[in-house]
Design a protein that fits this description.
Residues 973-1007 are annotated as: Disordered. Among the domains are: 257-265 and 281-419 and 441-454; 843-975 and 1006-1090, no CATH class. The chain contains 54 helices and 2 strands. A two-stranded antiparallel ribbon has the order 1-2. Helix 10 (176-202) runs antiparallel to helix 11 (210-231).
Length: 1090
C-alpha cells in the first residue's frame, strides 16, 4: 500500500493542472492504479494524511467516486472488512472539510452493508464506545475521539432510516438495527442532550460564551437530526419513554428564541436547532400522535409563541430565509394538530387570538413586499402569487413562506366544524351523521369571514402606503386561502363575496397594483367555485388587469402576469369566457405589442385558451397562427447561441397546442366550412410553419461563420417543433407539395437534430415519434419520391453525407435503449423504417447499416433484461425478428459478435415470448405472424446447421412455433367474427366512480393503518411503473413484404420436410398434436406417425 501513496499524490496534484495533456495523463494513471487491491486504502491514507488540504480533499473526492462505481462489484474487491473499519476510524479524526466528503463514502457503505444487508454487527458497539470516550462527553480536550465527528458518523448511519426500507409492506416493523441504535446510543445521549441544552440556554444572553456554546449548539443540532431520522417513519420502542424529556428540552430552546433581527453567524446554529425542533414536532404529530398526546398543549403553546412573532412589524420587515421558515413551520405544526380530534380541542380556544396576533399580521402587506415587488418582480410572484405559469426554481427553503403557511392554517380553521370523534354509534348511523353535518356551522362562517369583513375596502383616495391598503392586502390573501370553504357554500355566497369584496378593486383601486395583482390571484384560486353567471364580470376585470400599463413609475408586471395566471386557472377549471374572440384578440395584441419578458406567459395563456376553446375557436386558428408565428420570428436570434429562450419555447408550445386543436377539429364535424375552404386554410398553415421552421433551423445555421459550420441547429423546443413538422407532413399529398414545402430540407435538418438527441423525456419524445410516423405515412402516399433515402450533408457530422432515414434511425436506435415507453415506440418505428422505403441496390449498404444498429441496440437492451422476464422482451425480440428475416447473416454476425451463443439466446427468448404461457406475450395478428415466420426460420436454421447445446433451443422453438401457429389461426377467426361491431359500455364504471365520489367523507380523519395501507399501495404502483410494463398492449406492426408470406404453407412445408427430425423424442405433447390435427387436418399423415 505504501508504494502506491507517492504515485497517487503526484497524480492527484496533476489533476489540478490547467494543461489538458497533463490532466488526461493523470486521469489515466489513476485509472490504472485503481486496479490494485490496496488502491482505496491508499487513497484513504492520502485523504487523512496528505501534505495539503487541497490534496486531502482531492483524494477524498476521488475515493467517493471510486467507491460509488465499485459498490455493485464483489465486496472482496474492496477488501471491504479492512477498508470500512479504517474509513470509520478516519472519520472520527478527520478535519471538517475532509469529513464532509468522507461521510459520503461512508454513507454508500453503510446503506449497503449495515442498512440493507445487516452485515456489520460490530459497528454500533464500537461507535457507542467511541461516543462515550469522546472529548465533549468526558470533557477532555486531549481525548482521542471528537464528539462532533462521532455524532456526524451516527447521523450518517441513521439518515437512511428516515424512509421506510420496505414501503410496499403495509405494517413494516422497526428495523432491528434502528432499535439497537436507539437503545444503545440515542437513549443514553438524552442525558448529554439535556445537559448541553441547560448550558446553551443559560448562555444565550452571555456574549462571552459564543465560542463555548457554538460547539455545544452544533452537537445539539446533530442529535436533533438523529432523532428526526429515527422517528420520521418508524418509532423505535426505546425512544417512546424519552420523548417527553426530549420535547421539553426543545420547548426551552424554542421559548427562548427571538426573531427580531437577521441571523448572523452567532445565532445561525440556534435557528437551525429551532427549525429542526419544529420539523420533529410535525413528524411526531402526524406519524406518532399517540406517543405525544399529552404533549400537544405544550407543542401548541410553543408554536403559538413563535407564530405570534409575525405580529412584530420589525420581525416581518427583516425576516431572512431561515427565520421565515421557522415561523412557517410554527403555523404548519398548529395546522397538523388542528386536523386531529384532540388537537382541535386544544387549538380552538385560541382561534381569535391566532387570527388577531399571528395569522393576519403574517398576511398584511409590508415594506419588504413592496421592495421585492420593485427589485425582483418574479421573486415576488413566486412567493406571493404562485401559479403554474412558471416552473419553480431557486432554493426549496424559499418556497416555505410564513404567509403561505398562515394561509393554509386559516383554511384549516375555516373548514373546522368541531372535534371529530367517531363513535360506534355514529359509524353505524351514517345517514344521521350526514344530517348533522348539514346543520353544523363552520368556523369560517362563525369567525373567519366576520373577522375579515371588519376591514374596509380602500378607495381612490387611499395611497399604497396607507394602513387600510396594507390591511386589505391581508384580507385578499386570506380570501385566496378559502376555496375549500367556499366550495361547501352555495353559489350565492361566493358570488356575493367576490362581487362585494374583490371585483370593485379593479375600478376603485386601479392605482394600487399590489391589491389588483392579489385580486387576480384570488380569482385564480377560487376558479373551482366561481358561478358561471358572473363570468362576464370576472373576465372583464381580468382583461383590464392583463392590459394594465405601468402606473406612476410602479412596475405592473406582476399585475399582468397574475392576470394571465388567473385566466389560465379559470380555463383549466372549465370556467369559460362568454366571448372567446375578444379574449383571444387581447392576448394576441399583447403578444404583438407587449414586452419581451411578458411574451412568455402570454404564449402560455394563448396555448391554454386554444386547448380549452377547442371547436369553439377553431375557425379563428389560421389568424392566430399567423399572429403567433410573426411574434416568434421577431424573437428568434440570428445565431443559435442564446437558445433556448423561454419566449421562443413558449411560442412554439402555443403553436403546438393550436396545431393539436386544429387537427382535432378537422377530424370531427365542428368546423363549419366546406372541404375546399378547409384545405386552403390547411395549406396556408403548412406553408407558414414551413417558413418558420426553415428560419429557426436553417437560416440561423447559415448565418454562422463558415469556420464554425459544424454548429448544429438548436435543440430548443424539439418536441413542439416536431408537432408543427408533423402537420406539414400531413398536408403534403403530391410530389409538387413536397418540394413547395421544402419537406426534404426540413426533414434533413430535423433528422440531424434528433440523431444527436440525448435529453430523453417522455413528454418531449412523444411528438418526435409521432412525426416519424407521419414521415413514413408521407412516404407511403408519395412512394415515387422516396425522399427518406435522399442523401444530404450532415451538420451534426460535417463532411459526411447521410440520408434522412439514417438520421431518424439514429434517434430510434437510442430510443430502443431509453426509458420503457420510448423502447416501445422506437421498436414500433423500426418495422416501419425497414419496410416502407424502397431500398435500391445502391442503398443496400444503408439498409444493412440500420439493421445492424437496430439489432445491436435491441439485443443489448434484451441482455440487460434477460434475467427478469418483462413486457419489454416482446418489442425487443420482434425488432430482432424483423431484422433477421431481411438480413439473417448480418443479424447472426451481430448477435454472436456481441456475445457467445447470441443467436441461441435470441431464439430461446423468442420461443419464450411466443409461448401461450408468457404474460404480455404476442397477441395481434401482425405480432404472431412475425413470430411464427421467424421461429420457422430459426427451426430451419437449427435443423440445417445444428449448434452445440442447441437441441434444447430447437425443441423450445418448435413447441412455441406450433403454439403460435395455432394462436394465429384463433386470432384471425376471432377478428373475422368481431369485425362487424365493437361495443364499449362505460356506464358501470361511470356509476362506480360517481358512487365512490358520493361516499367520500372529507371529515373522516385518516387512521395510521389507512395511511400505511395507502403508502404501501402507492409504493407498489411506483415500482410497477419503474419495472417498465407500461405499454404492453397490442401492436399492429408494419410487416411489408413479410405480410404477403403464406404462413400456413411455410409452417406445413417445414413439417413435411423435417418431420422425422422434429417429431422424434416426444417433443410435442399429445394435447398440442391433437390441437394441430383439429385445426389442420392435412397434417394428419405427418403427425400420426409421431
Amino acid at each position: 500500500m505504501d508504494t502506491l501513496i507517492p504515485e497517487i499524490c503526484r497524480l492527484l496534484n496533476d489533476t489540478l493542472s490547467p494543461e489538458k495533456a497533463v490532466l488526461a495523463s493523470a486521469t489515466d494513471g489513476l485509472d490504472r492504479l485503481s486496479r490494485f487491491p490496496h488502491f482505496p486504502l491508499s487513497l484513504l491514507a492520502v485523504a487523512t494524511g496528505g501534505d495539503s488540504q487541497g490534496l486531502r480533499l482531492a483524494a477524498a473526492a476521488y475515493l467517493k467516486n471510486f467507491v460509488r462505481s465499485c459498490m455493485d462489484d464483489d465486496p472482496q474487491s474492496l477488501e471491504l472488512q479492512r477498508f470500512r473499519n479504517q474509513l470509520a476510524q478516519a472519520l472520527l479524526q478527520a478535519e471538517p472539510a475532509v469529513l464532509k466528503v468522507l461521510v459520503e463514502v461512508f454513507r454508500l457503505i453503510v446503506v449497503k452493508n449495515f442498512v440493507k444487508e445487516n452485515t456489520w454487527p460490530e459497528l454500533v458497539p464500537e461507535l457507542t464506545s467511541v461516543i462515550q470516550r469522546s472529548n465533549l462527553i468526558i470533557q477532555d480536550k486531549n481525548a482521542q475521539w471528537s464528539t462532533l465527528n462521532a455524532l456526524t458518523v451516527l447521523q450518517t448511519i441513521l439518515r437512511p432510516f428516515q424512509y421506510f426500507l420496505n414501503p410496499k409492506v403495509r405494517n413494516e416493523s422497526v428495523p432491528v438495527q434502528l432499535e439497537i441504535i436507539a437503545q444503545e446510543i440515542l437513549v443514553p445521549l438524552q442525558a448529554t442532550f439535556h445537559d448541553f441544552v441547560n448550558k446553551v440556554t443559560l448562555s444565550f444572553q452571555d456574549p462571552f460564551q459564543d465560542q463555548v456554546q457554538s460547539k455545544l449548539e452544533e452537537i445539539i443540532l446533530i442529535i436533533c437530526k438523529c432523532m428526526y431520522f429515527s422517528v420520521r417513519s418508524y418509532m423505535p420502542s426505546a425512544l417512546g419513554p424519552i420523548l417527553p424529556s426530549f420535547c421539553h428540552d426543545l420547548f426551552r430552546i424554542l421559548d427562548s428564541l427571538s426573531l427580531d433581527g437577521a441571523s448572523d453567524d452567532g445565532s445561525l446554529l440556534r435557528l437551525k436547532i429551532a427549525k429542526r425542533g419544529l420539523i420533529i414536532f410535525s413528524a411526531l404529530v402526524t406519524r406518532h400522535r399517540k406517543h405525544v398526546d399529552r404533549l400537544i398543549p405544550s407543542v401548541v403553546d410553543c408554536a403559538f409563541k413563535i407564530a405570534k412573532q409575525s405580529g412584530n412589524t420589525c420581525v416581518m420587515q427583516n425576516l431572512d430565509c431561515i427565520s421565515e421558515r421557522i415561523i412557517s413551520l410554527a403555523f404548519d405544526v398548529i395546522s397538523y394538530i388542528l386536523e386531529s380530534g384532540p388537537g382541535w380541542r386544544v387549538v380552538s380556544p385560541h382561534f381569535s387570538s391566532l387570527l388577531d396576533n399571528a395569522i393576519f399580521p403574517a398576511l398584511v402587506l409590508n415594506q419588504k413586499d413592496i421592495l421585492e415587488w420593485d427589485e425582483d418582480a418574479e421573486e415576488y410572484i413566486r412567493k406571493n402569487l404562485p401559479s403554474d405559469i412558471d416552473e419553480i426554481s431557486g432554493w426549496a427553503e424559499d418556497l416555505f413562506t410564513a404567509r403561505k403557511s398562515a394561509i393554509n392554517l386559516l383554511s384549516v380553521i375555516a373548514m373546522s366544524k368541531g372535534p371529530r370523534i367517531a363513535t360506534a354509534t355514529t359509524k353505524r348511523k351514517k345517514a344521521d351523521k350526514s344530517k348533522g353535518k348539514q346543520k353544523e356551522s363552520s368556523i369560517g362562517e362563525l369567525l373567519v369571514i366576520p373577522f375579515l369583513s371588519k376591514f374596509p375596502m380602500p378607495y381612490h383616495g387611499d395611497k399604497a402606503s396607507s394602513k387600510i391598503v396594507h390591511n386589505y392586502y391581508g384580507v385578499l390573501m386570506a380570501y385566496g386561502g378559502l376555496p375549500d370553504f367556499l366550495r361547501e357554500r352555495n353559489s350565492e355566497y361566493t358570488t356575493t363575496l367576490v362581487r362585494n369584496r374583490v371585483l370593485p378593486l379593479y375600478s376603485s383601486c386601479p392605482f394600487v397594483p399590489y391589491l389588483v395583482a392579489t385580486a387576480n390571484w384570488i380569482i385564480g384560486e377560487l376558479a373551482s367555485c366561481l358561478p358561471q353567471a358572473m363570468s362576464s364580470d370576472v373576465y372583464d376585470s381580468l382583461i383590464k388587469a392583463l392590459t394594465m400599463p405601468d402606473i406612476n413609475g410602479i412596475n405592473c408586471y406582476p399585475v399582468r402576469a397574475s392576470a394571465a395566471g388567473a385566466i389560465i386557472r379559470l380555463l383549466e377549471n372549465e370556467y369559460v369566457p362568454p366571448d372567446w374572440l375578444s379574449v383571444l384578440e387581447v392576448v394576441v395584441n399583447q403578444i404583438a405589442n407587449g414586452e419581451k419578458n411578458e411574451s412568455s406567459f402570454l404564449f402560455h395563456l394563448l396555448g391554454t385558451a386554444v386547448e380549452a376553446g377547442q371547436n369553439i375557436i377553431s375557425a379563428h386558428i389560421p389568424m392566430l397562427i399567423s399572429s403567433v408565428v410573426g411574434a416568434i420570428v421577431n424573437h428568434i436570434p440570428p445565431i443559435p447561441d442564446p437558445w433556448p429562450q423561454v419566449v421562443v419555447e413558449r411560442g412554439f408550445a402555443a403553436l403546438a397546442a393550436i396545431t393539436k386543436t386544429w387537427e382535432a377539429s378537422s377530424a370531427g364535424e365542428a368546423l363549419e366550412h366546406d372541404d375546399r375552404k378547409w384545405e386552403s386554410a390547411q395549406a396556408v398553415i403548412a406553408r407558414t410553419f414551413a417558413t418558420l421552421l426553415y428560419q429557426a433551423w436553417a437560416v440561423s445555421v447559415q448565418s454562422i461563420d463558415s469556420a464554425d459550420r459544424s454548429t448544429s441547429p438548436p435543440l430548443s423546443c424539439l418536441d413542439d417543433a416536431s408537432t408543427l413538422l408533423g402537420l406539414i407532413l400531413k398536408s403534403a399529398t403530391k410530389k409538387n407539395e413536397i418540394e413547395e414545402l421544402k419537406i426534404p430540407e426540413l426533414l434533413a435538418l430535423w433528422s440531424d437534430l434528433i440523431s444527436d438527441w440525448h435529453g430523453w423525456e417522455e413528454m418531449e419524445d412523444l411528438a418526435v415519434f409521432d412525426c416519424i410516423q407521419e414521415a413514413v405515412n408521407l412516404q407511403r402516399r408519395c412512394d415515387s419520391t422516396n425522399f427518406l433515402l435522399t442523401r444530404i450533408s450532415s451538420r451534426v457530422s460535417p463532411g459526411v453525407d447521410q440520408s434522412i432515414i439514417e438520421g431518424v434511425s439514429a434517434f430510434v436506435t437510442k430510443g430502443i435503449m431509453a426509458y420503457p415507453s420510448a423502447t416501445w415506440r422506437a421498436c414500433s418505428c423500426v418495422h416501419e423504417l425497414l419496410h416502407v422505403p424502397s431500398f435500391s441496390f445502391q442503398m443496400q449498404c444503408v439498409k444493412q447499416s440500420i439493421i445492424t444498429s437496430f439489432t445491436q441496440a435491441a439485443f443489448s437492451h434484451f441482455k440487460d433484461l434477460r434475467n427478469k422476464p418483462t413486457g419489454l422482451w416482446k418489442p425487443l425480440l420482434l425488432v430482432i425478428s424483423s431484422c433477421y428475416i431481411l438480413c439473417p447473416e448480418i443479424v447472426e454476425q451481430v448477435l454472436d459478435r456481441d456475445e457467445d451463443n447470441g443467436f441461441m439466446i435470441v431464439a430461446c427468448g423468442l420461443a419464450h415470448v411466443s409461448s401461450r404461457s408468457f404474460d404480455s406475450g404476442i397477441s395481434s395478428v401482425s405480432e404472431i405472424k412475425l413470430a411464427v415466420i421467424t421461429l420457422e426460420k430459426f427451426v430451419e436454421r437449427l435443423v440445417a446447421f445444428p449448434l452445440e447445446d442447441g437441441n434444447k433451443v430447437l425443441q423450445d422453438c418448435l413447441v412455441s412455433l406450433m403454439e403460435a401457429f395455432l394462436h394465429l389461426k384463433e386470432v384471425e377467426e376471432k377478428e373475422a367474427e368481431e369485425s362487424d361491431s365493437e361495443v364499449i359500455d362505460d356506464e358501470y364504471s361511470d356509476e362506480e366512480i360517481s358512487d365512490n365520489e358520493d361516499s367520500e367523507d372529507d371529515d373522516q380523519e385518516e387512521t395510521q393503518e389507512e395511511f400505511l395501507d395507502r403508502y404501501a399501495k402507492a409504493a407498489d404502483e411506483l415500482s410497477e411503473v419503474v419495472a417498465g410494463d407500461i405499454e404492453d398492449g397490442v401492436q399492429d406492426l408494419e410487416l411489408g413484404p413479410v405480410d404477403e408470406i403464406d404462413v400456413r404453407e411455410e409452417v406445413l412445408s417445414l413439417i413435411r420436410r423435417h418431420h422425422q427430425v422434429l417429431l422424434k423424442g416426444q417433443v410435442l405433447s399429445s394435447g398440442l398434436i391433437q390441437q394441430m390435427l383439429d385445426a389442420f387436418p392435412e397434417c394428419t399423415p405427418l403427425l400420426q406417425v409421431h
